[in-house]
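Open question from group meeting: does this chain pack into something compact, or does most of it stay loose? Before anyone orders reagents, we agreed to write out a predicted structure and look at it together. Recording both the input and the output here so the notebook holds the full record.
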Amino acid sequence: DYCLAITLMAQPLAWMEGTGLPEEAFAIAPLIRLYRQHRTALHAGTILPIGEEPSGCGWTGFQSLTEDGRDYLLVFREWTKRDEARIPCWLAPGTRLNLECLWGDGRLLAPEVDADGRIALHLPTPFSFAWFRIAPLSEG
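Structure tokens returned:
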């Protein structure tokens, strides 16, 4: 799932013969079905990087800024002991959030964007990710 998720905010393409894939490759089918439900709205937005610069040892990701305000957030916990992070995002400080986790074990730790423009999140294990749909409730 982790490797596939890296391409969710891009236009994922796979040019290959699928019949030779090992059985475990098909475990990602539910994630692909979910992606298909959201891809039009996801890619209609402006996709920008969030979090730390990817290094293999931090928290990073992407935010898709949509016209209707129901943004998408894809967050990666790389190889780090930190199971919580404050991720810089493209929402105004004080914005109250309604966050729906579409995939993964991520969860919001605070109900609004902090004064520094960050969202506090939890991911339980290294090399994991969470895909969220964000609906701002209001600005503080």
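Observations to bring back to the group:
The longest helix spans residues 29-44.
Residues 4 and 32 are 9 Å apart (CA to CA).
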